[in-house]
Amino acid sequence: TPQNELTAYMARHMIDHKRTFIQAESEVSAINMVFGASAAGARAMTSSSSPGVSLKQEGISYACGADLPCVIVNVARSGPGLGGISPGQGDYFQATRGGGHGDYFHIVLAPKSVQEAADLTYTAFDLADTWRMPVLILADGMIGQMMEGVVLPEPRDPAKLPEKPWAAGGQYKTHRPINHVSSINLVPDELEAKVHERFKRYDQIKRKEVRFEEVNTDKADLILVAYGTSSRVCLGAQQMAKSQGIELGIFRPISLWPFPYDRISELAAKGKRFLVVEMSMGQMIQDVQLAAAGKAPISFYGRCGGNIPTEEAVLAEARRLLGK
Fold it and tell me: Which CATH architecture has domain 4-208?
């Protein structure tokens, strides 16, 4: 799958850093191993591609219900079903709406390059510990298969990682009773209170953890909105347009959840127009529409089935919308 290079690299190199790599027998087993490792206080992650991440959704819901920090990587491919192994962005809804059962969300980060994929993975582990929740890295098959130079950040010092007094392990240090880490609660009022507490935390995350990048949004009347590989295509289209005397802007959400609703709303209020570009039939566009709230025209250009939009096609659509 498009994420095989990730696991192949980990299998070779984690032992060199006194870390553990396990090739599970299934995606279901892998996510439940992550649940157990996290519940014991370890930093843990898993990765797969689209259908494999669908199989992990029950375990992700359990981890969210138990407030367990972990990192999940989805190097997304084209679908639905088995689909193909070429890049796709059709997993946006699953990633940003809580893909399993129950009332929950988790942070979703979308890299545009191999360097940013590495950087955001470091960030993801820190955010997971800070907010006690899974964090999903939503890449796509192009980024997963791309070769680029990378400078890896300095490894975290295990001795400086945050304490986890809630974890199942560590009794020998604290002499406290054994913690029971679980997502089950059969008392309705208690479960409701826990869900409310979790959603208060979500409100804090929405205030503190929104991430995005802007290019030329002040000068341009038309802003291209895209993430991941699509945003790189849009950057090429924007540079081509500039050479032809046409000003285009780019707005790239880095955090897909929480989504940068407020900034898009501000741009819409300034009279900006938006062209959303995705490798799907249109999913993120719904969040852009919610953010703009009818204050600005929003158009869409997408490719699917493993096809990637071209710079020329995006520029042609932008020119059509601008009447140029």
Answer: 3-Layer(aba) Sandwich (3.40)
d(CA 140, CA 287): 19
**In this structure, what token pair is assigned to residue 126?**
């820190």
| CATH class name, domain 214-322 | alpha beta
Residues 6+ apart with CB under 8 A from 58: 28, 31, 100, 101
Structure-block tokens of residue 240: 């081509």
Query: What is the 3 state secondary structure string of 194-214?
Result: HHHHHHHHHHHHHHHCCCEEE
At 218-235, the pLDDT tens digits run 999 999 999 999 999 999
Q: Do domains 4-208 and 214-322 have the same CATH topology?
A: yes
pLDDT digits (tens, 9 = 90+) for 250-293: 999 999 999 999 999 999 999 999 999 999 999 999 999 999 99
Nearest to 6, CA basis, from 137, 99, 108, 132:
137
